[in-house]
Amino acid sequence: MPKLYYSTVPYLKFFIQKTYFNDRHYVWCSECFDNNLSAPHTLGLFVPPSSNPADIYKVLKEACRKRDTHDSKIIQQRASLIKIATEKHLNGEITDIQRDEAIFMTENCEFTLWKPVIYLIPNSLNPLRIQAVPIKKRASFGPEYIIADLVQDEFDLIEV
Questions:
Q1: What letter would DSSP give residue 50?
Q2: pLDDT tens-digit profile of 52-82?
Q3: Phi-psi label, residue 126: left if phi above 0, alpha if psi -120 to 50, beta otherwise
Q4: Which residues, at least 6 apart from 16, have a Cβ–Cβ distance to it below 8 Å?
Q5: What is the pTM of this model?
Q6: What is the tally of structural domains in the chain?
Q7: What is the pLDDT of residues 140-157, one digit of tens each?
Q8: Taking a C-beta distance cutoff of 8 angstroms, is the pair 31, 56 a contact?
Q9: Residues whose CB falls within 8 Å of the CB of residue 103, separated by 6 or more in sequence, listed in order
Q10: Domain limits at 20?
């Protein structure tokens, strides 16, 4: 069992989840920060760049440096945040104002808010909250996990 789980997201996602989604953080995470440093013959080597927290960090950091509004990771994250805000509103989890503000921020924020941040999540969470992603939904054969309901006192957030 890993000591930590890692997830890299744009700062904007962290901010919106904290501010508008009642400090409930939905994260896809990995047992290692950089699968390229995994031991030989381990499943961590099968985590592709699109799911590897270190690679996601590099992509977001470079997109921010170049102010690349067509970066695929930022486009994907923007669409995801809008979809989540809409779904949470339809499910009665957030108000009209929370939905509208989250969507407005996602569509109009300063580019610096897309900077990457890393969630460091200790394995001391209840194991039932850490869900293995079914293999058919993973980007490859390496392990990936979802934690759907983190609150801020359950993880550390860092920038490198």
A1: T
A2: 999 999 999 999 999 988 899 999 999 999 9
A3: beta
A4: 81, 85, 102, 105, 106
A5: 0.91
A6: 1
A7: 888 999 999 999 999 999
A8: no
A9: 81, 82, 85, 86
A10: 4-158
